[in-house]
Design brief:
With 114 residues, chain A is mostly beta strands. In chain A, 0% of the residues lie in helices and 53% in strands. Chain A starts with a strand and ends with a strand. The chains are: A mainly beta (114), B mainly beta (118). Chains A and B meet through strand 5 and strand 10 of A and strand 5 and strand 9 of B.
């Protein structure tokens, strides 16, 4: 049972444009969400998170939007850079923080072309 | 920043061998560590939660006698894959939970171990 889903396996974007990565979840108990970036043969690197009490969180070029009613979150990267090319995972946890167990989506491969 | 070291990064061994993977928190104490497994082009799946000084908590479907976890100190957790078989070949990643200060990312990930069983 895949409780966190990233339905787009890959996304290709031109440098300077916006990248939008999507994530859906089914478990209404999830209340804290994170985005990670991962390169092959490396562990995930934290990007940005959002609590369910918010609908938007911004950090530099990265913005995460949360739509609780739709159980949907998205990561916007503006402007996209070639160095952003990686696999992006969304993750969810219960209890309002990332202290607990994380449930990951399948990942989306982002390729940013120069 | 907080660093988690995982060793070895890559191991190849024969079927039937037991393999130990270490996960160390280098500059913080980690009372809780998590072990994940990732198959190619799939998600990171949580295998177990490792608690310092107590037994690990395994996720449903994970054989605790197959994947032995020991968390004997606040900076080290080990995962031993016993009598490994080709189907155990995967990418294993640990994360450590940092209690020393408030952070929006108290879980810090190691770089993973690529395990290949021949």
């Amino acid at each position: 049972d895949q409780q966190v889903k990233q339905n787009s396996p890959s996304l290709s974007v031109q440098e300077g444009r916006i990248s939008i990565l999507n994530c859906d979840y089914t478990n209404s108990m999830f209340d804290y969400f994170l985005w990670y970036k991962k390169y092959p043969a490396e562990g995930p690197t934290f990007l940005i998170s959002i609590s369910s009490i918010k609908d938007k969180n911004e950090d530099g070029r990265f913005t995460v939007f949360l739509n609780k009613s739709a159980k949907h979150l998205s990561l916007h990267i503006v402007p996209s850079q070639p160095g952003d090319s990686a696999v992006y995972f969304c993750a969810a946890s219960k209890g309002g923080t990332s202290y607990g167990k994380l449930t990951f989506g399948q990942g989306t491969i982002l390729t940013v072309h120069p | 920043g907080a660093v988690v070291s995982q060793h070895p990064s890559w191991v190849i061994c024969k079927s039937g061998t037991s393999v130990k993977i270490e996960c160390r928190s280098l500059d913080f104490q980690a009372t809780t560590m998590f072990w994940y497994r990732q198959f190619p082009k799939q998600s990171l799946m949580l295998m177990a939660t490792s608690n310092e000084g107590s037994k690990a908590t395994y996720e449903q479907g994970v054989e605790k006698d197959k994947f032995l976890i020991n968390h004997a100190s606040l900076t080290l957790s080990t995962l031993t894959v016993t009598s490994a078989h080709p189907e155990d070949s995967s990418f294993y990643i640990c994360s450590a939970r940092d209690h020393s200060f408030y952070s929006n990312q108290p879980q810090h990930f190691g770089d993973g171990t690529r395990l290949s069983i021949l």
